[in-house]
């Protein structure tokens, strides 16, 4: 499609917070950042492993006045946004503030900030509660803070759709570019790892209780027994190819996007993930045989893995398209997972290698997928990224060279 936006900048916050190239090295090495929770004693909980960002000192990245105003997830989003905009060299290319906008997604908002302030309310009284609680908890805080920090006044927004929301944010940014914006920052991040936030993860009943980090999150593996929550995500800069502001680099094109919603549980009707994948491919003008790799949602829950594998087989037929879930090394990031997969897919195109799924090795024959478990040298021209959220959300994005 001629109006498909180009990705001109990328930023990530996962693992050790070392940025895009650090993330890419970890992915190719099959490194896992899943480890016991470090911020408090988690021994009393049924699950104790998480994909945490370690070694991140927010004071090294953001001004001191901004830190007390923001939850950890907003701080991560601001840093990832700064990385993406610097990568795109946006500040030096003459955009008007009304040409630039922001769309983000997160599934848990600023929980850590809110829980801290609620504790003050209950134990010390309302006069001790931070005035910033009025907005730091809000789902739109990431969009608002990024737009304020960078003077971006074009159409913005925030989407909440659990794990699928990050791809939806990219889809919405694409629409905003079609409606007149010239540059959009889009993506998603999540972090809800304070004790209350951790309980919210455990409430799903699908979190892995494994003690061995190398066996805890095994997408599509016969031994899969749940997922491991992670924190972080990615931000991207999207622009028109002919915006009049020539980009410093072009990673790829967001060629297609679609979202669907599953039928009610117990209805007996199958997931609509396959339909989302087909709609995204149609939107991109791509046929299934042109797809070089699928970056799958990879829930690590047998029932969900079986459903996703069936959807992939439904779309691709007897052809076993390569399937990978590199985010298994950092955990399921809720709204951050899809955008991180898009960034990883773009790097896969750049370097001609399909990254592996760490730890998953024994793939049931019934899944009928070609699971990539070691780095695979291969030209990648088209990648399909999928994401599924609790409650029936399905999203798919097609990336082209």
UniProtKB/TrEMBL annotation:
GO biological process: fatty acid biosynthetic process
Boundaries of every Ketosynthase family 3 (KS3) domain copy: 2-401
Superkingdom per UniProt: Bacteria
Listed transmembrane segments: none
GO molecular function: 3-oxoacyl-[acyl-carrier-protein] synthase activity
Entry keyword set: Acyltransferase, Transferase
SUPFAM superfamilies reported for this sequence: Thiolase-like
InterPro entries: Beta-ketoacyl_synthase (IPR000794), Ketoacyl_synth_C (IPR014031), Ketoacyl_synth_N (IPR014030), PKS_Beta-ketoAc_synthase_dom (IPR020841), Thiolase-like (IPR016039)
Family affiliation: Belongs to the thiolase-like superfamily. Beta-ketoacyl-ACP synthases family.
UniProt-recorded name of the protein: Ketosynthase chain-length factor
